[in-house]
Design brief:
Keywords: Membrane, Transmembrane, Transmembrane helix
Largest sheet: 3 strands, antiparallel
Strand content: under 5%
CATH topology: Sodium/glucose cotransporter
Number of helices: 24
Pfam family, one: SSF
GO molecular function, one term: D-glucose:sodium symporter activity
Transmembrane segments: 36-53, 73-94, 106-127, 148-173, 179-198, 210-230, 264-284, 364-387, 407-431, 443-462, 468-487, 499-522, 554-576
Radius of gyration: 23 Å
CATH architecture: Up-down Bundle
CATH class: Mainly Alpha
Strand order of the largest sheet: 1-2-3
CATH superfamily: Sodium/glucose cotransporter
Structural class: mainly alpha
Family: Belongs to the sodium:solute symporter (SSF) (TC 2.A.21) family.
Length: 577
Protein backbone atom coordinates (compact mmCIF):
# COMPACT_ATOMS: atom_id res chain seq x y z
CA UNK A 1 0.00 0.00 0.00
CA UNK A 2 1.22 3.59 -0.59
CA UNK A 3 2.91 5.52 2.24
CA UNK A 4 0.83 7.84 4.38
CA UNK A 5 1.95 11.45 4.01
CA UNK A 6 1.34 14.17 6.58
CA UNK A 7 2.37 17.78 5.98
CA UNK A 8 4.60 16.70 3.15
CA UNK A 9 6.60 14.20 5.24
CA UNK A 10 6.51 10.48 4.63
CA UNK A 11 5.48 8.67 7.82
CA UNK A 12 5.69 5.09 6.67
CA UNK A 13 3.79 2.25 5.04
CA UNK A 14 0.89 0.17 6.29
CA UNK A 15 1.36 -3.50 7.05
CA UNK A 16 -1.44 -6.04 6.68
CA UNK A 17 -4.07 -3.32 6.87
CA UNK A 18 -2.82 -2.17 10.28
CA UNK A 19 -1.60 1.25 11.38
CA UNK A 20 1.27 2.87 9.51
CA UNK A 21 4.72 1.85 10.65
CA UNK A 22 8.12 3.12 9.68
CA UNK A 23 9.71 1.38 6.76
CA UNK A 24 12.55 -0.82 8.00
CA UNK A 25 11.66 0.25 11.55
CA UNK A 26 13.70 3.46 11.35
CA UNK A 27 12.89 7.13 11.83
CA UNK A 28 14.26 9.69 9.40
CA UNK A 29 13.54 13.42 9.30
CA UNK A 30 13.17 14.82 5.79
CA UNK A 31 15.32 17.90 6.32
CA UNK A 32 15.88 20.32 3.45
CA UNK A 33 18.98 22.50 2.86
CA UNK A 34 17.38 25.40 4.76
CA UNK A 35 17.12 23.18 7.85
CA UNK A 36 20.79 22.21 7.68
CA UNK A 37 21.79 25.87 7.24
CA UNK A 38 19.92 26.84 10.43
CA UNK A 39 21.62 24.04 12.38
CA UNK A 40 25.06 25.03 10.99
CA UNK A 41 24.56 28.71 11.94
CA UNK A 42 23.73 27.63 15.48
CA UNK A 43 26.92 25.56 15.78
CA UNK A 44 28.98 28.54 14.61
CA UNK A 45 27.47 30.68 17.38
CA UNK A 46 28.09 27.98 20.00
CA UNK A 47 31.78 27.59 19.16
CA UNK A 48 32.17 31.37 18.83
CA UNK A 49 30.89 31.86 22.39
CA UNK A 50 33.44 29.26 23.55
CA UNK A 51 36.27 31.17 21.87
CA UNK A 52 35.15 34.51 23.33
CA UNK A 53 34.77 33.03 26.81
CA UNK A 54 38.32 31.64 26.66
CA UNK A 55 39.69 35.19 26.71
CA UNK A 56 38.25 35.62 30.24
CA UNK A 57 39.81 32.45 31.66
CA UNK A 58 43.01 33.26 33.55
CA UNK A 59 42.50 31.26 36.74
CA UNK A 60 40.74 28.15 38.03
CA UNK A 61 37.94 30.28 39.56
CA UNK A 62 37.37 31.83 36.12
CA UNK A 63 37.18 28.37 34.55
CA UNK A 64 35.06 26.65 37.21
CA UNK A 65 32.91 29.53 38.58
CA UNK A 66 33.15 32.34 35.98
CA UNK A 67 35.12 34.45 38.45
CA UNK A 68 31.93 34.90 40.56
CA UNK A 69 31.04 37.91 38.40
CA UNK A 70 27.85 37.18 36.42
CA UNK A 71 24.50 39.04 36.81
CA UNK A 72 21.46 37.23 38.22
CA UNK A 73 19.36 37.37 35.03
CA UNK A 74 22.12 35.55 33.12
CA UNK A 75 22.61 32.87 35.77
CA UNK A 76 18.83 32.59 36.25
CA UNK A 77 18.26 31.73 32.60
CA UNK A 78 21.33 29.46 32.62
CA UNK A 79 19.94 27.78 35.77
CA UNK A 80 16.78 26.72 33.97
CA UNK A 81 18.48 26.07 30.63
CA UNK A 82 20.93 23.66 32.30
CA UNK A 83 17.87 21.60 33.21
CA UNK A 84 16.40 21.83 29.71
CA UNK A 85 18.28 18.79 28.51
CA UNK A 86 17.13 15.26 27.88
CA UNK A 87 15.23 15.23 31.20
CA UNK A 88 13.05 18.13 30.22
CA UNK A 89 12.59 17.82 26.49
CA UNK A 90 12.54 14.16 25.48
CA UNK A 91 11.86 12.75 28.94
CA UNK A 92 8.89 14.99 29.71
CA UNK A 93 7.43 14.75 26.21
CA UNK A 94 7.74 10.95 26.60
CA UNK A 95 5.94 11.21 29.93
CA UNK A 96 3.29 13.42 28.33
CA UNK A 97 2.71 10.84 25.61
CA UNK A 98 2.52 7.97 28.11
CA UNK A 99 0.79 9.55 31.14
CA UNK A 100 -0.74 12.85 30.00
CA UNK A 101 -1.45 15.75 32.36
CA UNK A 102 -0.04 14.09 35.53
CA UNK A 103 3.37 14.89 34.01
CA UNK A 104 2.72 18.52 35.04
CA UNK A 105 3.59 17.42 38.58
CA UNK A 106 7.27 17.28 37.61
CA UNK A 107 7.14 21.05 37.17
CA UNK A 108 4.52 22.49 39.54
CA UNK A 109 5.03 20.03 42.42
CA UNK A 110 8.42 18.55 41.59
CA UNK A 111 10.43 21.68 40.74
CA UNK A 112 9.18 25.19 41.50
CA UNK A 113 8.68 24.87 45.31
CA UNK A 114 12.17 23.38 45.71
CA UNK A 115 13.72 26.07 43.49
CA UNK A 116 12.15 28.78 45.65
CA UNK A 117 13.36 27.03 48.83
CA UNK A 118 16.89 26.89 47.40
CA UNK A 119 16.85 30.62 46.69
CA UNK A 120 15.29 31.77 49.95
CA UNK A 121 16.84 29.35 52.48
CA UNK A 122 19.88 27.47 51.17
CA UNK A 123 21.76 29.76 48.78
CA UNK A 124 22.90 32.14 51.54
CA UNK A 125 24.75 29.20 53.14
CA UNK A 126 26.30 28.02 49.89
CA UNK A 127 27.39 31.45 48.71
CA UNK A 128 28.15 32.96 52.11
CA UNK A 129 30.51 30.12 53.01
CA UNK A 130 32.44 30.76 49.76
CA UNK A 131 32.54 27.06 48.90
CA UNK A 132 33.40 26.15 45.32
CA UNK A 133 31.05 23.16 45.16
CA UNK A 134 28.28 21.37 47.04
CA UNK A 135 30.60 18.49 48.09
CA UNK A 136 32.98 21.10 49.55
CA UNK A 137 30.11 22.30 51.76
CA UNK A 138 29.67 18.68 52.87
CA UNK A 139 33.37 18.48 53.79
CA UNK A 140 33.20 21.59 55.93
CA UNK A 141 30.04 20.42 57.69
CA UNK A 142 30.75 16.69 58.09
CA UNK A 143 34.40 16.06 57.29
CA UNK A 144 36.09 13.89 54.67
CA UNK A 145 33.93 10.75 55.08
CA UNK A 146 30.65 12.28 53.90
CA UNK A 147 32.57 14.50 51.47
CA UNK A 148 34.21 11.57 49.69
CA UNK A 149 30.93 9.62 49.45
CA UNK A 150 29.13 12.69 48.07
CA UNK A 151 31.88 13.66 45.61
CA UNK A 152 32.21 10.13 44.20
CA UNK A 153 28.45 9.54 43.90
CA UNK A 154 27.98 12.96 42.28
CA UNK A 155 30.77 12.35 39.78
CA UNK A 156 29.29 8.97 38.80
CA UNK A 157 25.80 10.44 38.49
CA UNK A 158 27.01 13.26 36.22
CA UNK A 159 28.71 11.02 33.66
CA UNK A 160 25.62 8.77 33.62
CA UNK A 161 23.24 11.71 33.11
CA UNK A 162 25.60 13.32 30.59
CA UNK A 163 25.33 10.03 28.72
CA UNK A 164 21.55 10.48 28.53
CA UNK A 165 21.90 13.91 26.94
CA UNK A 166 24.65 12.65 24.64
CA UNK A 167 22.62 9.64 23.54
CA UNK A 168 19.67 11.82 22.58
CA UNK A 169 21.92 14.42 20.96
CA UNK A 170 23.47 11.64 18.88
CA UNK A 171 19.99 10.32 18.09
CA UNK A 172 19.07 13.66 16.52
CA UNK A 173 22.13 13.57 14.27
CA UNK A 174 21.30 9.93 13.49
CA UNK A 175 17.75 10.64 12.29
CA UNK A 176 18.83 13.85 10.57
CA UNK A 177 21.87 12.59 8.68
CA UNK A 178 21.46 8.82 8.75
CA UNK A 179 24.86 8.32 10.37
CA UNK A 180 25.39 5.23 12.54
CA UNK A 181 24.40 6.04 16.11
CA UNK A 182 27.92 5.59 17.48
CA UNK A 183 29.32 8.06 14.95
CA UNK A 184 26.58 10.55 15.81
CA UNK A 185 27.31 10.21 19.52
CA UNK A 186 31.04 10.79 19.06
CA UNK A 187 30.51 13.86 16.83
CA UNK A 188 28.03 15.33 19.30
CA UNK A 189 30.49 14.75 22.15
CA UNK A 190 33.30 16.53 20.29
CA UNK A 191 31.13 19.62 19.72
CA UNK A 192 30.22 19.98 23.41
CA UNK A 193 33.78 19.16 24.50
CA UNK A 194 35.17 21.93 22.30
CA UNK A 195 33.40 24.86 23.89
CA UNK A 196 33.55 23.62 27.49
CA UNK A 197 37.30 22.99 27.24
CA UNK A 198 37.82 26.42 25.69
CA UNK A 199 35.76 28.65 27.96
CA UNK A 200 34.83 26.63 31.05
CA UNK A 201 31.71 27.58 32.98
CA UNK A 202 31.35 30.98 31.30
CA UNK A 203 31.13 29.29 27.90
CA UNK A 204 28.54 26.87 29.28
CA UNK A 205 26.45 29.60 30.93
CA UNK A 206 26.40 32.05 28.01
CA UNK A 207 25.60 29.21 25.65
CA UNK A 208 22.81 28.14 28.02
CA UNK A 209 21.27 31.62 27.81
CA UNK A 210 21.37 31.40 24.01
CA UNK A 211 20.04 27.86 24.16
CA UNK A 212 17.08 28.88 26.35
CA UNK A 213 15.76 31.25 23.68
CA UNK A 214 16.51 28.79 20.88
CA UNK A 215 14.63 26.01 22.72
CA UNK A 216 11.54 28.20 23.25
CA UNK A 217 11.66 29.37 19.63
CA UNK A 218 11.74 25.73 18.57
CA UNK A 219 9.08 24.20 20.81
CA UNK A 220 6.48 26.99 20.82
CA UNK A 221 5.72 26.72 17.06
CA UNK A 222 5.62 22.91 17.35
CA UNK A 223 3.05 23.17 20.13
CA UNK A 224 0.90 25.73 18.30
CA UNK A 225 0.95 23.82 15.00
CA UNK A 226 0.18 20.57 16.82
CA UNK A 227 -2.75 22.14 18.69
CA UNK A 228 -4.07 23.61 15.44
CA UNK A 229 -3.89 20.17 13.81
CA UNK A 230 -5.88 18.59 16.64
CA UNK A 231 -8.55 21.27 16.96
CA UNK A 232 -7.07 23.54 19.63
CA UNK A 233 -7.21 23.11 23.40
CA UNK A 234 -10.82 21.91 23.29
CA UNK A 235 -9.95 19.38 20.61
CA UNK A 236 -7.07 18.07 22.71
CA UNK A 237 -9.32 17.72 25.75
CA UNK A 238 -12.07 15.96 23.80
CA UNK A 239 -9.70 13.47 22.18
CA UNK A 240 -7.86 12.69 25.41
CA UNK A 241 -11.00 12.25 27.51
CA UNK A 242 -12.54 10.13 24.75
CA UNK A 243 -9.96 7.41 25.38
CA UNK A 244 -10.44 4.49 27.77
CA UNK A 245 -8.30 6.05 30.53
CA UNK A 246 -8.93 9.59 29.36
CA UNK A 247 -10.03 11.02 32.70
CA UNK A 248 -6.74 10.03 34.37
CA UNK A 249 -4.77 11.32 31.37
CA UNK A 250 -6.49 14.73 31.34
CA UNK A 251 -6.52 15.44 35.09
CA UNK A 252 -3.20 15.70 36.89
CA UNK A 253 -4.61 14.39 40.19
CA UNK A 254 -4.50 11.71 41.57
CA UNK A 255 -1.93 10.64 38.92
CA UNK A 256 -2.25 6.91 39.61
CA UNK A 257 -0.64 5.82 36.33
CA UNK A 258 2.38 8.00 37.04
CA UNK A 259 2.84 6.96 40.66
CA UNK A 260 1.97 3.28 40.24
CA UNK A 261 -0.57 3.35 43.11
CA UNK A 262 -4.16 2.41 42.24
CA UNK A 263 -5.35 3.90 45.54
CA UNK A 264 -5.93 7.64 45.01
CA UNK A 265 -4.82 8.67 48.50
CA UNK A 266 -1.59 6.67 48.27
CA UNK A 267 -0.97 8.09 44.81
CA UNK A 268 -1.28 11.68 46.05
CA UNK A 269 0.99 10.92 49.02
CA UNK A 270 3.53 9.25 46.72
CA UNK A 271 3.58 12.23 44.36
CA UNK A 272 3.68 14.92 47.07
CA UNK A 273 6.19 13.20 49.38
CA UNK A 274 8.21 11.08 46.94
CA UNK A 275 8.35 13.48 44.00
CA UNK A 276 7.38 16.87 45.44
CA UNK A 277 9.49 16.66 48.57
CA UNK A 278 12.26 14.06 48.50
CA UNK A 279 13.16 13.78 44.81
CA UNK A 280 12.46 17.43 44.01
CA UNK A 281 14.18 19.04 46.99
CA UNK A 282 16.97 16.47 46.70
CA UNK A 283 17.59 17.44 43.09
CA UNK A 284 17.17 21.21 43.14
CA UNK A 285 18.75 22.06 46.50
CA UNK A 286 21.79 19.77 46.50
CA UNK A 287 22.57 19.22 42.83
CA UNK A 288 25.77 21.09 42.05
CA UNK A 289 24.85 21.21 38.36
CA UNK A 290 22.22 23.81 39.28
CA UNK A 291 23.87 25.38 42.34
CA UNK A 292 27.04 26.05 40.34
CA UNK A 293 25.16 28.60 38.21
CA UNK A 294 24.13 30.57 41.31
CA UNK A 295 27.67 30.43 42.71
CA UNK A 296 28.89 32.21 39.56
CA UNK A 297 27.05 35.44 40.51
CA UNK A 298 28.52 38.58 42.09
CA UNK A 299 26.62 38.69 45.42
CA UNK A 300 24.49 36.71 47.89
CA UNK A 301 21.34 38.50 46.70
CA UNK A 302 22.08 37.66 43.06
CA UNK A 303 22.80 34.05 44.02
CA UNK A 304 19.45 33.84 45.84
CA UNK A 305 17.59 35.36 42.88
CA UNK A 306 19.14 32.91 40.41
CA UNK A 307 16.84 29.89 41.10
CA UNK A 308 13.87 32.21 41.78
CA UNK A 309 14.25 33.88 38.38
CA UNK A 310 14.53 30.41 36.84
CA UNK A 311 11.27 29.36 38.54
CA UNK A 312 9.17 31.76 36.43
CA UNK A 313 9.90 30.21 33.00
CA UNK A 314 9.95 26.76 34.64
CA UNK A 315 6.22 27.08 35.40
CA UNK A 316 5.32 27.49 31.75
CA UNK A 317 7.83 25.12 30.12
CA UNK A 318 5.40 22.14 30.45
CA UNK A 319 2.99 23.79 28.01
CA UNK A 320 5.60 23.48 25.24
CA UNK A 321 7.03 20.12 26.35
CA UNK A 322 4.27 17.96 27.86
CA UNK A 323 1.48 19.08 25.53
CA UNK A 324 3.40 18.13 22.33
CA UNK A 325 3.93 14.65 23.82
CA UNK A 326 0.18 14.31 24.43
CA UNK A 327 -0.55 15.48 20.89
CA UNK A 328 1.95 13.01 19.46
CA UNK A 329 0.18 10.12 21.21
CA UNK A 330 -3.04 11.14 19.46
CA UNK A 331 -2.04 11.96 15.88
CA UNK A 332 1.20 10.06 15.26
CA UNK A 333 0.33 6.45 14.33
CA UNK A 334 3.51 4.92 15.75
CA UNK A 335 3.11 6.52 19.21
CA UNK A 336 -0.66 5.93 19.27
CA UNK A 337 -0.05 2.26 18.42
CA UNK A 338 2.59 1.98 21.15
CA UNK A 339 0.17 3.46 23.67
CA UNK A 340 -2.70 1.20 22.62
CA UNK A 341 -0.79 -2.09 22.41
CA UNK A 342 2.29 -1.54 24.59
CA UNK A 343 4.68 -2.50 21.80
CA UNK A 344 5.76 -1.38 18.34
CA UNK A 345 8.67 0.05 16.38
CA UNK A 346 8.65 3.38 18.23
CA UNK A 347 9.43 4.35 21.83
CA UNK A 348 7.95 7.17 23.90
CA UNK A 349 11.34 8.91 23.76
CA UNK A 350 10.68 9.48 20.04
CA UNK A 351 7.28 11.15 20.55
CA UNK A 352 8.64 14.65 19.90
CA UNK A 353 10.65 13.61 16.84
CA UNK A 354 7.66 11.90 15.28
CA UNK A 355 5.49 14.94 15.91
CA UNK A 356 8.09 17.22 14.32
CA UNK A 357 8.14 14.95 11.28
CA UNK A 358 4.35 14.89 11.10
CA UNK A 359 3.44 18.57 11.42
CA UNK A 360 6.39 20.87 10.70
CA UNK A 361 7.26 22.16 7.23
CA UNK A 362 10.88 22.71 6.23
CA UNK A 363 12.32 25.80 7.85
CA UNK A 364 10.30 25.31 11.01
CA UNK A 365 11.72 21.79 11.10
CA UNK A 366 15.22 23.27 11.08
CA UNK A 367 14.35 25.59 13.98
CA UNK A 368 12.89 22.65 15.93
CA UNK A 369 15.97 20.52 15.27
CA UNK A 370 18.22 23.37 16.37
CA UNK A 371 16.16 23.68 19.55
CA UNK A 372 16.55 19.99 20.36
CA UNK A 373 20.28 20.10 19.70
CA UNK A 374 20.51 23.18 21.93
CA UNK A 375 18.61 21.41 24.70
CA UNK A 376 20.80 18.32 24.71
CA UNK A 377 23.99 20.36 24.48
CA UNK A 378 22.87 22.54 27.39
CA UNK A 379 22.14 19.49 29.50
CA UNK A 380 25.37 17.70 28.71
CA UNK A 381 27.48 20.84 29.11
CA UNK A 382 25.95 21.44 32.54
CA UNK A 383 26.78 17.89 33.64
CA UNK A 384 30.34 18.06 32.32
CA UNK A 385 31.11 21.52 33.75
CA UNK A 386 29.85 20.41 37.18
CA UNK A 387 31.84 17.16 36.93
CA UNK A 388 35.14 18.86 36.12
CA UNK A 389 34.77 21.20 39.11
CA UNK A 390 34.01 18.42 41.60
CA UNK A 391 36.71 16.16 40.17
CA UNK A 392 39.37 18.88 40.27
CA UNK A 393 38.60 20.53 43.60
CA UNK A 394 36.90 17.79 45.63
CA UNK A 395 38.67 14.66 44.47
CA UNK A 396 42.02 15.49 42.86
CA UNK A 397 43.03 18.49 44.98
CA UNK A 398 41.66 17.03 48.23
CA UNK A 399 42.83 13.42 47.99
CA UNK A 400 45.47 13.09 45.24
CA UNK A 401 47.60 16.24 44.74
CA UNK A 402 47.36 18.99 47.36
CA UNK A 403 49.02 22.40 47.38
CA UNK A 404 49.77 22.68 43.67
CA UNK A 405 49.60 25.91 41.65
CA UNK A 406 46.33 27.35 40.41
CA UNK A 407 47.40 26.69 36.81
CA UNK A 408 47.90 23.04 37.66
CA UNK A 409 44.26 22.64 38.76
CA UNK A 410 43.09 24.57 35.71
CA UNK A 411 44.89 21.97 33.55
CA UNK A 412 43.39 19.15 35.61
CA UNK A 413 39.94 20.65 35.02
CA UNK A 414 40.42 20.70 31.26
CA UNK A 415 41.70 17.10 31.26
CA UNK A 416 38.75 16.06 33.47
CA UNK A 417 36.43 17.60 30.88
CA UNK A 418 37.95 15.40 28.19
CA UNK A 419 37.82 12.31 30.42
CA UNK A 420 34.19 12.87 31.42
CA UNK A 421 33.18 13.29 27.78
CA UNK A 422 34.87 10.02 26.81
CA UNK A 423 33.13 8.18 29.66
CA UNK A 424 29.80 9.77 28.68
CA UNK A 425 30.17 8.29 25.19
CA UNK A 426 30.07 4.83 26.76
CA UNK A 427 27.33 5.60 29.31
CA UNK A 428 25.21 6.99 26.47
CA UNK A 429 24.45 3.46 25.34
CA UNK A 430 23.17 2.48 28.80
CA UNK A 431 20.46 5.09 28.33
CA UNK A 432 19.45 3.52 25.02
CA UNK A 433 18.02 0.48 26.84
CA UNK A 434 15.15 2.51 28.38
CA UNK A 435 11.96 3.10 26.38
CA UNK A 436 11.07 6.09 28.60
CA UNK A 437 14.17 8.05 29.59
CA UNK A 438 12.46 9.43 32.68
CA UNK A 439 12.35 5.93 34.21
CA UNK A 440 16.16 5.85 34.06
CA UNK A 441 16.69 9.37 35.31
CA UNK A 442 14.27 9.14 38.23
CA UNK A 443 16.01 5.92 39.27
CA UNK A 444 19.36 7.74 39.34
CA UNK A 445 17.88 10.64 41.31
CA UNK A 446 16.40 8.28 43.91
CA UNK A 447 19.84 6.69 44.37
CA UNK A 448 21.94 9.85 44.62
CA UNK A 449 19.81 12.91 45.40
CA UNK A 450 17.25 11.67 47.94
CA UNK A 451 19.71 10.57 50.67
CA UNK A 452 21.92 13.60 50.00
CA UNK A 453 19.00 15.94 50.64
CA UNK A 454 18.20 14.16 53.92
CA UNK A 455 21.80 14.61 55.10
CA UNK A 456 21.89 18.25 54.00
CA UNK A 457 18.61 19.37 55.49
CA UNK A 458 19.23 17.64 58.83
CA UNK A 459 22.82 18.85 59.05
CA UNK A 460 21.91 22.43 58.14
CA UNK A 461 19.24 22.79 60.83
CA UNK A 462 20.44 20.38 63.57
CA UNK A 463 23.83 21.26 65.00
CA UNK A 464 24.01 17.99 66.99
CA UNK A 465 24.38 15.90 63.81
CA UNK A 466 27.86 14.40 63.71
CA UNK A 467 30.41 13.80 60.92
CA UNK A 468 30.03 10.02 61.32
CA UNK A 469 26.25 10.31 60.92
CA UNK A 470 26.85 12.28 57.70
CA UNK A 471 28.55 9.48 55.79
CA UNK A 472 26.61 6.59 57.41
CA UNK A 473 23.28 8.17 56.44
CA UNK A 474 24.45 8.78 52.89
CA UNK A 475 25.76 5.26 52.32
CA UNK A 476 22.82 3.37 53.79
CA UNK A 477 20.26 5.77 52.34
CA UNK A 478 21.65 5.07 48.87
CA UNK A 479 21.78 1.31 49.51
CA UNK A 480 18.13 1.29 50.65
CA UNK A 481 17.07 2.99 47.40
CA UNK A 482 19.00 0.36 45.41
CA UNK A 483 17.24 -2.40 47.41
CA UNK A 484 13.81 -0.99 46.47
CA UNK A 485 14.90 -0.81 42.81
CA UNK A 486 16.05 -4.45 42.87
CA UNK A 487 12.85 -5.62 44.62
CA UNK A 488 10.76 -3.93 41.94
CA UNK A 489 12.87 -5.31 39.09
CA UNK A 490 12.63 -8.84 40.51
CA UNK A 491 8.86 -8.34 40.98
CA UNK A 492 8.95 -8.87 44.72
CA UNK A 493 7.01 -5.61 44.82
CA UNK A 494 4.88 -4.38 41.93
CA UNK A 495 4.89 -0.71 40.96
CA UNK A 496 4.19 0.64 37.50
CA UNK A 497 5.16 3.99 36.01
CA UNK A 498 7.82 5.83 37.96
CA UNK A 499 6.28 4.79 41.28
CA UNK A 500 9.29 2.66 42.25
CA UNK A 501 11.53 5.75 42.08
CA UNK A 502 9.11 7.72 44.28
CA UNK A 503 9.07 4.88 46.84
CA UNK A 504 12.85 4.39 46.66
CA UNK A 505 13.39 8.11 47.24
CA UNK A 506 11.04 8.12 50.21
CA UNK A 507 12.68 5.05 51.74
CA UNK A 508 16.19 6.48 51.20
CA UNK A 509 15.17 9.74 52.87
CA UNK A 510 13.63 8.05 55.91
CA UNK A 511 16.51 5.58 56.32
CA UNK A 512 19.04 8.41 56.07
CA UNK A 513 17.23 10.56 58.66
CA UNK A 514 16.69 7.70 61.13
CA UNK A 515 20.26 6.42 60.93
CA UNK A 516 21.67 9.95 61.15
CA UNK A 517 19.73 10.60 64.37
CA UNK A 518 20.71 7.23 65.88
CA UNK A 519 24.41 7.54 64.97
CA UNK A 520 24.53 11.16 66.15
CA UNK A 521 23.27 10.03 69.56
CA UNK A 522 26.35 7.84 70.08
CA UNK A 523 29.07 9.88 68.34
CA UNK A 524 30.70 13.26 68.96
CA UNK A 525 29.50 16.39 67.13
CA UNK A 526 31.71 19.21 65.90
CA UNK A 527 32.30 22.18 68.22
CA UNK A 528 29.76 24.97 67.69
CA UNK A 529 32.51 27.38 66.66
CA UNK A 530 33.24 25.22 63.58
CA UNK A 531 29.62 25.35 62.42
CA UNK A 532 29.35 29.10 61.76
CA UNK A 533 28.17 29.60 58.18
CA UNK A 534 27.19 25.92 57.93
CA UNK A 535 24.33 25.53 60.44
CA UNK A 536 21.38 27.89 60.66
CA UNK A 537 21.33 28.36 64.44
CA UNK A 538 25.07 29.09 64.61
CA UNK A 539 25.23 31.61 61.76
CA UNK A 540 24.63 35.35 62.35
CA UNK A 541 21.85 36.66 60.12
CA UNK A 542 24.09 39.44 58.85
CA UNK A 543 26.34 36.79 57.31
CA UNK A 544 23.44 35.47 55.21
CA UNK A 545 22.68 38.79 53.47
CA UNK A 546 24.50 41.46 51.50
CA UNK A 547 25.16 44.72 53.39
CA UNK A 548 22.84 46.62 51.01
CA UNK A 549 20.06 43.99 50.94
CA UNK A 550 17.51 46.31 52.61
CA UNK A 551 17.96 49.00 49.95
CA UNK A 552 17.33 46.77 46.92
CA UNK A 553 14.28 47.63 44.76
CA UNK A 554 11.30 45.27 45.13
CA UNK A 555 12.04 43.38 41.91
CA UNK A 556 15.47 42.40 43.27
CA UNK A 557 14.25 41.15 46.67
CA UNK A 558 14.45 37.35 46.71
CA UNK A 559 11.72 36.67 49.30
CA UNK A 560 9.15 38.87 47.56
CA UNK A 561 9.94 37.39 44.13
CA UNK A 562 9.64 33.89 45.61
CA UNK A 563 6.28 34.73 47.19
CA UNK A 564 4.86 35.93 43.86
CA UNK A 565 6.13 32.79 42.11
CA UNK A 566 4.56 30.57 44.79
CA UNK A 567 1.15 32.20 44.32
CA UNK A 568 1.32 31.67 40.55
CA UNK A 569 2.32 28.00 40.80
CA UNK A 570 -0.48 27.31 43.32
CA UNK A 571 -2.95 28.91 40.88
CA UNK A 572 -1.64 26.72 38.04
CA UNK A 573 -2.11 23.60 40.17
CA UNK A 574 -5.70 24.60 40.97
CA UNK A 575 -6.95 25.91 37.66
CA UNK A 576 -5.02 23.75 35.16
CA UNK A 577 -4.11 20.65 37.16
Amino acid sequence: MPPTAVAGHTIGSTVAGGPPTLAAGTLRLDAAPVDFVLVAIYFVFVLGIGLLARQRVSSSIDFFLSGRSLPAWVTGLAFISANLGAVEIMGMSANGAEYGMPTMHYFWIGAVPAMLFLGVVMMPFYYGSKVRSVPEFMRRRFGTGAHLVNALSFAVAQVLIAGVNLYLLGSILNVLLGWPLWVSVVVAAVIVLSYITLGGLSAAIYNEVLQFFVIVAALLPLTLVGLHRIGGWNGLRDKVTGQADGSQQWHSWPGSELSGFSNSVLSVIGIVFGLGFVLSFGYWTTNFVEVQRALATHSISAARRTPIIGAYPKMFIPFIVVIPGMISALIVPQIADLKATGHGDATYNQALLYLMKAVLPNGLLGIALTGLLAAFMAGMAANISAFNTVFSYDLWQQYVRKDRSDGYYLTVGRLATVGATVIAIFTAFIAGHFSNMMDYLQTLFSFFNAPLFATFILGMFWKRMTPTAGWVGLVFGTLSAIVVFVLNKTEVIHLSGQGSSFVAAGVAFVVDIVLSVVVSAVTTPKPAAELVGLVYSETPKAQLNDPDAATLPWYQRPVLLAGIALVIVIALNIFVG
